[in-house]
Specification:
With about 230 residues, the protein is mainly alpha-helical. The chain has ten helices and two strands; from the N terminus they run E-H-H-H-H-H-H-H-H-E-H-H. The protein folds into two domains: about 80 residues; about 120 residues, Fumarate Reductase Cytochrome B subunit (Up-down Bundle), CATH 1.20.950. It has a two-stranded antiparallel sheet. Helix 1 runs antiparallel to helix 3 and helix 3 runs antiparallel to helix 10.
C-alpha cells in the first residue's frame, strides 16, 4: 500500500453500503408510489408496485446476511464496538467544540447508530404490515405511521449524507474510503487524528469465513428468507 494512503479497514468493503443504497432507493421509489396512488398507475398497478417493494426488502435482508456471512466477522464486531462507543472527544465534537476523532467521527457514529435502529424498525414494521394483511391480529395501530415516519427521517439523513459525501469540500474525500477502502494520509491526519497512528495496514490475511459454521448458518438463513419471500410473493 502506498505511503500516501491509510487503510479504511472497512471489513465488508463497498458491498454492504452498495446493497443498502440500492435497496433504500428502490424501496423509497416504490414506497412513494404506494403512498401516492396516482404514481402507482405509472408503474403498472398498485399490486405490482407492492410486490416489487416487498421483493426489494427481502433481497436487501438476504444480501446483508450473505455479506456478513462471507466477511471477516471479527473485524465487523470490532467496527461495531468502535462505532457504539462515544467518548469525551466525540461529545465535544457533537457540541461544536472540536476534539480529535478516530476512524469514525462522532457524526458518522451517530448516523450509523440511527440507521441501524431505523433498519430494525423498518424490518419490524414492514413485517407487521406484510403479514397483517393475512392475520388481522398483527394489524397494530400506528404501524403505518411508524413506517412512513421512518421513511421521512431516513430520507433526510441520507440526503445529508450524500451532500457531505458528494458536495461539501472538507468531507468529500471520505467518499474514497467508502468506495475504495482507503483515504489520503494527509486528509486522515487532519480529520481523524487519533486513528492515523493506529491505522498502519496489516499484512496478516483474515481467516477464511468459509470454514466457520456461522457462515453456513447465515447463508442458510438467507436462503430461507429468499424461499419464504418467493412463496409469499407468488
Amino acid at each position: 500500500m502506498a505511503e500516501s494512503t491509510y487503510a479504511a479497514v472497512l471489513a465488508t468493503g463497498a458491498r454492504a453500503p452498495l446493497a443498502n443504497a440500492v435497496a433504500f432507493f428502490g424501496m423509497l421509489v416504490t414506497g412513494v408510489a404506494l403512498y401516492l396512488p396516482g404514481l402507482a398507475g405509472a408503474f403498472g398497478s398498485r399490486g405490482a408496485v407492492k410486490t416489487v417493494h416487498l421483493a426489494i426488502a427481502a433481497a436487501w435482508i438476504c444480501v446483508l446476511l450473505v455479506v456478513v456471512a462471507t466477511s471477516d466477522r471479527a473485524a465487523l464486531l470490532r467496527t461495531a464496538r468502535e462505532i457504539e462507543r462515544l467518548g469525551p472527544d466525540d461529545v465535544r465534537w457533537l457540541t461544536g467544540r472540536g476534539g480529535p476523532q478516530g476512524r469514525f467521527n462522532a457524526g458518522q457514529k451517530a448516523h450509523a447508530i440511527a440507521q441501524a435502529a431505523f433498519a430494525v424498525l423498518f424490518t419490524t414494521s414492514g413485517l407487521l404490515l406484510w403479514f397483517g394483511e393475512r392475520d388481522t391480529s398483527l394489524r397494530l395501530p400506528g404501524t403505518i405511521v411508524l413506517h412512513d415516519g421512518l421513511t421521512v427521517l431516513a430520507s433526510v439523513l441520507v440526503a445529508a449524507h450524500l451532500f457531505l459525501a458528494l458536495v461539501w469540500p472538507t468531507t468529500r474525500p471520505a467518499l474514497r474510503g467508502m468506495l475504495r477502502g482507503t483515504v489520503r494520509r494527509e486528509w486522515a491526519s487532519e480529520h481523524h487524528a487519533t486513528w492515523v497512528p493506529l491505522s498502519q495496514p496489516t499484512r496478516d490475511a483474515p481467516p477464511s469465513a468459509w470454514v466457520s459454521p456461522g457462515t453456513w448458518a447465515l447463508l442458510a438463513l438467507a436462503a430461507a428468507v429468499a424461499a419464504i419471500a418467493a412463496v409469499e410473493l407468488t
